[in-house]
Amino acid sequence: MVVDKTKCRVREPGRCAIPVTEVATRVMVFLSEDDRVAHHGLHEALLNRAREDGMAGATVWRGIEGFGASGRFRTARFPDAATGLPLALELIDAPERIEAFLQVVRELAPGCFVTREQVQMTRFGGSPARGLDDPGPKGVHRP
Questions:
Q1: I need a surface site. Which of 28, 43, 56, 109 has the fewest CB within 10 A?
Q2: More confident residue, 132 or 61
Q3: CA 33 from chain center: how many Å?
Q4: Which CATH number fits domain 21-123: 3.30.70.120, 3.40.630.30, 3.40.30.10, 3.30.460.10?
Q5: pTM for this one?
Q6: Residue 138 pLDDT class (50, 70, 90 cuts)
Q7: Are the C-beta atoms of 61 and 131 separated by less than 8 Å?
C-alpha cells in the first residue's frame, strides 16, 4: 500500500492524520490453555512467533466457556475446575503474510481449528502509517 504523503498531515514522523483503509485477512486459531509446545503454552509460542515475524497485529482471547472437537465442556464457572479454558488467537495482516504464517501454525499446532476471512482494516491517524505491504521486521516466514 502506498500512502499519498500530499494528503497526509504529519503530526509526528511515521504517523498519518487521515484514515487509511486496507484489505487484510483475519485468522482465528482456536486453542486450549492445555495446548503446549515444550514447556510453554502454544498460544504464547504462536503469539511470540507472530511478533518476531512482524505480523501487523495479534491478540489472544480467553473464553469463559466452550467445547471443541472432543466435546469436553470447559467452563470458568467453577474456579477449582477451570483448567484448559478455550483460547482464540486472532491475527490480522496482508493475505500473503497470513498464508506464510499459517505454515508456522501447521508446524506448531497441526490439530488446531483455523478460520480466516477478508476484512477491511482502517487506521485512524494514531497508528503508524506503515502499510500492510511494508515487510516490517525481517522474519523467517516472509513470502
A1: 28
A2: 61
A3: 17
A4: 3.30.70.120
A5: 0.71
A6: low
A7: no
Residue with cell 478455550: 86
Q: Are 55 and 139 in contact (CB under 8 A)?
A: no
- In single-letter form, the type of residue at position 127 comes to S
The alpha-helical segments, DSSP class H, found in 17-94 are 42-52
C-alpha cell at 120: 477491511
Could you tell me which residues come within 8 angstroms of residue 5 by beta carbon, excluding any fewer than 6 positions away?
none
Return the bridge partners of 20, or none: 123
pLDDT at 92: 93
What are the structural domain ranges in the chain?
21-123
d(Cα 42, Cα 52) in Å, to the nearest integer?
15
The pLDDT score that the predictor gives to residue 14 is 58
Bridge pairing between strands 57-62 and 36-37:
unpaired
H/E stretch holding 107? helix 95-108
Tens digit of each residue's pLDDT (9 = 90 or more) over 44-66:
999 999 999 999 889 999 988 88
